[in-house]
Amino acid sequence: MSTIKDITSLPEWESHLASLPPSTLLIVSFHAPWAAPCAQMATVLSALAAGYPSGPGATTSWVSINAEDLSDLSETYNVTAVPFLVLIRDGKVLETVSGSSAVKVRAAIEKHAASPSATASATAHTNGAAASAAAADRQPEVEAHEEETDPEKKKEELFKRLGELVRAAPVMLFMKGTPSAPQCGFSRQLVAILREQAVKYGFFNILADDEVRQGLKEFAEWPTFPQLWVDGELVGGLDIVKEEMGNDPDFFKPYSVSKTNGDAVGA
């Protein structure tokens, strides 16, 4: 059965890519240690990987990457939130899946990989990982449909997700685009401020998820972007951040790091 390999450096990533036959499906899981949904996704992926053969005849390869540590790779594959799954074959991205839905992840993998011969035995494993993934995948379609068509239930789930997102890092920036490629002037200016202040922060590209974009306006009772959140509380947009810094030059001091290095990847 296959296992998940941790990739911790760019040379290791390049070496792994070079070692794969063109027909192999590479399943890349981007995660961040501070994002709770990533731990759940790791459990799901471990169980799914166990259903695919390993060794010389393997048709799949499974790797895990800390999106924050290897930010260059995160930008290369447009990782805007974690957990984030990228499916690659022969150097080409086939599909990406953002979020922690076990059903969506399994469907995407099975769509691009040969059905594992050991699926039945893998889902029968008694360890917690396999049991967790199997339970998620057995969810009746009718139940999922009912949830999708219940507006109150859907809103409740969205607000729960947003509550987790705004607390994914001590400083969270919801912006248009990414820190390396902002898609509006206000987002660009706010990124520049955070970098100047040496703030380590998480970000979320609201252009990549319209549900979050629209839901956060209501959740925050703040209709515009970018939005900066600190310790799970909304600070506001660019003008408010400038005002806070004007009133308190040390506003960002508790969140500064010694090196102005790198922006955390949003959850």
TrEMBL record:
InterPro entries: Glutaredoxin, GRX_PICOT-like, Monothiol_GRX-rel, Thioredoxin-like_sf, Thioredoxin_domain
One GO MF term: glutathione disulfide oxidoreductase activity
A Pfam family hit: Glutaredoxin
Keyword Iron: yes
Region named Disordered: 116-155
A Gene Ontology biological process term: intracellular iron ion homeostasis
Compositionally biased spans, kind Low complexity: 116-136
Keywords tagged on the record: Iron, Iron-sulfur, Metal-binding
Ranges of residues in domain Thioredoxin: 1-114
Cellular component GO terms, alphabetical: cytosol; nucleus
Biological function: Monothiol glutaredoxin involved in the biogenesis of iron-sulfur clusters. Binds one iron-sulfur cluster per dimer. The iron-sulfur cluster is bound between subunits, and is complexed by a bound glutathione and a cysteine residue from each subunit.
Family the UniProt entry places it in: Belongs to the glutaredoxin family. Monothiol subfamily.
Name the UniProt record assigns to this protein: Glutaredoxin
Species: Coniochaeta ligniaria NRRL 30616
